[in-house]
Amino acid sequence: MKKNRLGFAATLSKIPFPIIALSIAAMLLTMSSAIVFTLMPLYQKKVLGLEVGKIAILESIVEFVALSFRVVSGYFSDFFMQRKPLILLGFGLNSIAKIGLPFSTGVFFIYTFRVFERFGNGIQASPRDAYVGDVAPDDVKGASYGLRQGLGKLGSTVGGIVVFILTAYLTTEAVGLTGETYYYILMVGTGLSFVATLIVALFLKEPKVKQPAEKKRKSLFSMHKFKSLPIKFWHLMGAAFVFNLSHFNESLLSLRGEAINIPDKYLPLIMVFMNLVLFMVSYPIGQMSDRFGRRRFLFLGIVAVVVADLFLAFADAPKFIYAGVFFWGVQMAVTQAMIMTIIADNVNAELRGTAFGVYNLLMGLAYVAGGITYGYLWDTFNVRVPFLTSACVAVFSIAAFHVVLWPNEKEEELYT
User: Fold this and answer.
1) What's phi and psi for 207, nearest 5 deg?
2) Structural domain includes residue 213
3) 337 with 289: CB under 8 angstroms?
4) What is the pTM of this model?
5) Which long-range contacts (CB under 8 A, 24 or more apart) does 4-13 make?
6) What are the helix (H) ranges across 103-245?
7) Structurally, how many domains does the chain consist of?
8) Do residues 117 and 93 make contact, with C-beta atoms less than 8 angstroms apart?
9) Over the stretch 311-342, which tens digit does the pLDDT of each residue have?
């Protein structure tokens, strides 16, 4: 890997403009989703009268749809070696689906549009991550992934703040949230989504990637792309899957704050704080990994998981909750960017979309499994057990990554 010895500002100037444009588009899309879906459960419950249990089941179904299409879209982008059409299709479907949400008057219609929105999100995710790896020069690849991830989280933070401001402006204590209020808020979010789609259409250029010469073109459904992924990639996925089992649903962060009597009106600030930390850490860590290597930062990120879990497990005051949230935001910024960059470093361009599709699917499944497990531990035992269990899983993943990232002296250079 070519080392980058430039400063933060100089490194930013070396990141290709299409990656910056894609990062801004991703920020606007996540901002749009935060605005639209922060209040969606309340809209379904208060305006449409849907029960909470049914909301949870339906949301799980649409998330599974999104995860499944991340694999499909990544594979297709490799087969045709075209990233931009799938990214643009995903952004476009996401935007079109959001148009229908403000006009939905029943559960069937709202979840028809919701499935299309998640379908669009799933289509663009893997080609988007592969695009960054295709376009970014080797010496700023980590910084490029850090920028893309950081701006995405900034979008979530700003979107949450926008919802708070709009809700405060459009509602009163006497009346509360109404269908008309939701309509205006949803339209604001939808407009941002279309701006993001326009940026993708105007400023992304298809990267020129050399394809290996093949005597015979494979069938679209031959699965040859999956079979061609190197064995080291699958080893990395195994270790990453184990590590991501340490991740719990982030709603537990707010619930942990509630458990020590943080007032309800301040609980949303926990997620705002976490996303701000993630935004501020992502780009600097990515830039430093270009200079000092990926592995050491990945292991520091796993250590941050353990520190966060210990703060959260034994917190008895708000300052300890926020300390835990701080380290959780740090680990999210570090580990996600490092794993994605390692994939981009070590998987050839013609397989990169498929690789990111597999990664996104496996990590999504790990999050679902972890969320169910830690929720059960919370309900069955006490508030400390989920976080201590997460810390133990994270420690175990250090051994798994050590085996994968340091196979032997001859292969060490593969995972710098």
Assistant:
1) -70, 145
2) no
3) yes
4) 0.83
5) 4/139, 4/140, 4/143, 4/287, 4/290, 4/291, 5/291, 8/283, 8/284, 8/287, 11/140, 11/143, 11/287, 11/290, 12/143, 12/147, 12/283
6) 107-135, 141-170, 179-203, 224-228, 231-244
7) 2
8) yes
9) 999 999 999 999 999 999 999 999 999 999 99
